[in-house]
Write a structure and sequence with these properties.
CATH topology of the domain at 2-140 and 176-202 and 263-278: Rossmann fold
Number of strands: 13
Strand content: 15-25%
Radius of gyration: 19 Å
Largest sheet: 7 strands, parallel
CATH class of the domain at 2-140 and 176-202 and 263-278: Alpha Beta
Distance between the termini: 30 Å
CATH superfamily of the domain at 2-140 and 176-202 and 263-278: NAD(P)-binding Rossmann-like Domain
Strand order of the largest sheet: 3-2-1-4-5-6-11
Shape: globular
C-alpha cells in the first residue's frame, strides 16, 4: 500500500493513476473526498495528526504532495507546509513507514525572497533531519491536463484585448509536464539510489512569461497584444487588493517569485529516472 497526501490535487491525481497502472494499492488522505476509482480514501486534514496517522498505517511508502501557493484564512504556509510535513514524518516514524517522497518546489532555499519558498525550505529540512529514507523533489511550474497555470493563461489571451505582463516579462521558468513529474516519483519508489537525494525537475526549454503567452495564444489560433506593468506600480496595489479579495490573482509572495528566474539542471533527472522531458507545446491541447 502506498499512501498519498494531496492525491486529489492536480499532480496527485496523475501520480495516483500511475501507481494504479503499476498494480499498486493506493490510499489517499483527502480533506474533500473526490472520485478516485480504486483508491482507498481517508477523509481528513493534513494538519490533523490523527487523520495523517490513519492514512499512513500499514503503508510501505508515503508520497507527500500537499502544498498551497497562497495563504487563505487558517491555511497558512506554516501550517500546510511545515506543520503538515512534521505530522507526516511523525506518523511515518510511529507506524514503521521508512520510505518518504516529498514534494517541494524549485527555488526553495533558506534565504528566499518569498515566504512560500522559505516555508518549503523548512519542510525540506524536517524531511532531511527525519532519519527516514527520504527523497525530495523540486519541480518547476508544472503543466498538463488539469493545470491551473495553462487555464489561467488561456483565459488571459482569449478574454483580454491586451494581456497584462508584470515587469519586463523576461524572468525565466522551465515548465515540466505533469506526467514526467509522475514518472520521477514512481521511479524513485524502487530505487534505493535516490534515498537522501534532492532532484530538481524541469522541462527542456526555458521560457519567459511573454513566450508562455505567445505559445498559448498560438495554440488557440490567436495573436497577443501585451501591456507591461512596472513592478513598482503593481507592488503596492497587490499588497492592498490581495488582502481585500482572494480572487485577486497576485499576492506579494507571488510577485516576488515572478521577479526571479525559476530554472534548473535537468541532467540528473534524465540520468536517474530515464525521463526525456516533454516540451510545453506538445501538450497545450491536453
Amino acid at each position: 500500500m502506498i499512501g498519498v497526501t494531496g492525491g486529489t490535487g492536480f499532480v496527485g491525481r496523475h501520480i495516483v493513476a500511475r501507481l494504479q497502472e503499476m498494480g499498486q494499492d493506493v490510499r489517499v488522505l483527502a480533506r474533500r473526498p473526490r472520485d478516485l476509482p480504486g483508491a482507498e480514501i481517508i477523509e481528513g486534514d493534513i494538519t490533523d495528526p490523527t487523520a495523517v496517522a490513519r492514512a499512513v498505517t500499514g503503508c510501505s511508502a508515503v508520497i507527500h504532495l500537499v502544498g498551497i501557493i497562497r495563504e487563505l484564512g487558517p491555511s497558512t504556509f506554516k501550517r500546510v507546509h511545515v506543520q503538515a510535513a512534521r505530522n507526516v514524518i511523525e506518523a511515518c516514524r510511529e507506524h514503521g513507514v521508512r520510505r518518504l517522497l516529498h514534494m517541494s518546489a524549485l527555488g526553495t532555499r533558506e534565504n528566499a525572497r518569498s515566504r512560500y519558498h522559505r516555508s518549503k525550505w523548512r519542510s525540506e529540512e524536517l524531511v532531511r533531519e527525519s532519519g527516514l529514507e527520504a527523497t525530495v523533489f523540486r519541480p518547476s511550474v508544472i503543466f498538463g491536463k488539469g493545470s491551473a497555470l495553462i487555464s489561467q493563461l488561456r483565459d488571459l489571451v482569449v478574454r483580454w484585448p491586451a494581456v497584462p505582463v508584470i515587469g519586463d516579462g523576461m524572468s525565466l521558468t522551465q515548465p515540466v509536464w505533469v506526467e514526467d513529474v509522475a514518472s520521477c516519483f514512481v521511479g524513485a519508489l524502487d530505487s534505493g539510489d535516490t534515498v537522501g537525494q534532492t532532484y530538481e525537475l524541469g522541462g527542456p526549454e526555458t521560457l519567459g512569461l511573454e513566450q508562455l503567452l505567445d505559445l498559448v495564444a498560438e495554440a488557440e489560433g490567436l495573436g497577443t497584444s501585451k501591456v507591461h506593468l512596472p513592478i513598482w506600480l503593481v507592488k503596492p496595489a497587490t499588497a492592498v487588493l490581495s488582502r481585500l479579495s482572494s480572487r485577486f490573482p497576485l499576492t506579494p509572495d507571488l510577485l516576488a517569485m515572478l521577479a526571479e528566474d525559476n530554472v534548473c539542471d535537468i541532467e540528473p533527472m534524465r540520468q536517474t529516472f530515464g525521463v526525456e522531458p516533454a516540451r510545453l507545446g506538445e501538450h497545450l491541447s491536453d
